[in-house]
Specification:
Elements lengths: L1 H28 L1 E7 L2 E7 L4 H7 L9 E2 L10 E7 L2 E7 L2 E7 L4 H7 L9 E2 L11 E6 L1 E12 L3 E10 L3 E5 L4 E12 L2 E14 L4 E8 L23 E4 L2 E4 L4 E12 L19 E4 L10 E4 L3 E7 L8 E5 L3 H7 L2 E8 L1
Parallel strand pairs: 1-4, 5-8, 10-14, 17-21, 18-20
Antiparallel strand pairs: 1-2, 3-4, 5-6, 7-8, 9-12, 11-14, 12-13, 15-16, 17-22, 18-21, 19-20, 19-22
Length: 350
């Protein structure tokens, strides 16, 4: 009996050792994994060797955009931690294009960096870069560009009037022409997604000052005409030399009032029926006769006195009458040939 009892104790002891050995062996392979998904933490026991096996065992799907803190083939440690951040949808509107993304980034700034989306210094975001990303959000990027435009505008000149005692009263002469100036205006234009939203003037400078126009106004009083003393005559003269006095090698009426005189080359013509001004040419020794002039020197309609010819009106022009030259009208070809070519003084009457 005693022998049997001893053998039983040995068997029980052996079995206990075996059970303990098996239990120890099993527990030595058990792992306690801290699983964190989107911040929610739980403790999971597993006998799996790798991260991938653990995920399959617990039916956890991880897509490309999800964030996993370990490699799928990494061997699990006895006390290990697996962190998973699930990707959420985000809609992006930029450059007139709408795109859908999945991201596991925590902030807008992280999303932009992970997707390599460029945001200019002046671009506008509908959400702050520090904004935390939650499920199904929308982000808009407004592209902001600037353009500098330079415009120029003319500056009108002023007109100055100065008194001139050398000019007859009432006469006006431009002594200096005016010149317009120039102003440069710089404008900064701001565009949002290609549309102009703001204009700001950044510079306004005069690059050229205008030059004033100067007009001289005469203050000189007109001289009073000297009285003409008539002399008795038994016959009528056919020239305008009546009541004349010698002056500068020619003859001019006593007390003649004129604003300008010049020496000209004088020829004669006859026979015309119509002048350039539309009048019929006349020769009137006792009144007003017709002469042809260069209208750029003596304007048509100007009343003059021609030495050795008499009073005349500039009513005609001629192809050869250029510069300081006139053509006096006479009643016949004989008189014209007799006149020939001579140099005379001509007086522009007031």
């Amino acid at each position: 009996m005693k022998r049997f009892f001893s053998k039983g104790i040995v068997v029980v002891a052996f079995a206990a050792v075996m059970v303990f050995t098996v239990f120890f062996a099993i527990n030595s392979k058990k792992k306690h994994i801290t699983l964190v998904i989107d911040g929610k933490e739980q403790l999971v026991e597993t006998f799996k060797e790798t991260v991938d096996e653990f995920l399959i065992e617990n039916d956890i799907a991880v897509i490309d955009k999800d964030k996993l803190n370990k490699d799928n083939n990494e061997v699990l440690q006895k006390e290990d931690k697996i962190e998973i951040t699930k990707a959420v949808p985000i809609k992006l509107l930029a450059d007139n294009v709408e795109e859908q993304f999945m991201t596991a980034e925590k902030s807008i700034e992280g999303f932009l960096a992970s997707e390599q989306i460029e945001v200019g210094e002046k671009d506008k975001l509908s959400l702050s870069k520090d904004e935390l990303i939650y499920g199904d959000i929308e982000l808009k990027i407004t592209r902001v560009t600037e353009k500098i435009v330079e415009n120029t505008e003319e500056l009108d000149f002023s007109v100055q009037e100065i008194k001139d005692k050398t000019l007859l009263k009432g006469k006006k002469v431009v002594s200096k022409e005016g010149d317009k100036g120039e102003r440069k205006i710089t404008i900064l234009q701001t565009y949002e997604d290609g549309e102009l939203v703001k204009e700001e003037e950044t510079e306004n400078i005069v690059v050229k000052e205008p030059t004033d126009k100067v007009i001289a106004i005469g203050t000189k009083e007109k001289p009073k005409p000297k009285p003409v003393v008539a002399k008795a005559s038994t016959k009528q003269t056919t020239s305008s030399a009546a009541n004349l006095t010698a002056s500068r090698g020619g003859t001019t009426p006593s007390g003649l009032s004129y604003s300008k005189s010049m020496k000209v080359r004088a020829t004669a013509y006859s026979g015309h029926t119509m002048t350039a001004s539309g009048a019929v040419p006349v020769r009137n020794p006792n009144g007003w006769s017709t002469i042809a002039v260069d209208r750029s020197i003596i304007p048509l309609g100007t009343k003059v006195y021609v030495e050795n010819y008499g009073y005349a009106i500039a009513q005609d022009v001629g192809g050869a009458i250029k510069g300081n030259r006139i053509d006096v009208f006479l009643n016949s070809r004989t008189e014209s040939r007799s006149w020939g070519v001579r140099y005379v003084n001509i007086y522009i009457l007031d």
